[in-house]
Specification:
Blueprint (H helix, E strand, L loop, with lengths): L4 H26 L4 H8 L3 H9 L6 H11 L11
């Protein structure tokens, strides 16, 4: 049985978001920061960083801009290159 178009789209989006989360963690580690360090710079609790990286909490575009600033990366770093 074929997947419905919306199921395929949802699966694709979930996979892309999972890759974004990996890049989020990699950017933090590349900046030499612990979750606690990042949280302090973001003025958020450490659990915020943990939940964002694990996917328990979705990251919106404004938050992603702030992560990029703290990790000294362009926002484009977090997206796939086509």
């Amino acid at each position: 049985m074929r997947r419905a178009r919306s199921e395929t789209t949802t699966a694709t989006q979930a996979a892309r978001y999972a890759r974004l989360l990996i890049k989020l963690r990699d950017a933090r580690l590349g900046a030499g920061l612990t979750q606690a360090d990042a949280a302090k710079a973001l003025r958020k609790p450490q659990s915020f960083v943990s939940k964002c990286e694990s996917g328990e909490r979705r990251v919106d575009v404004v938050e992603l801009e702030r992560f990029a600033e703290v990790y000294r990366k362009p926002v484009s770093f977090f997206f796939e290159r086509r």
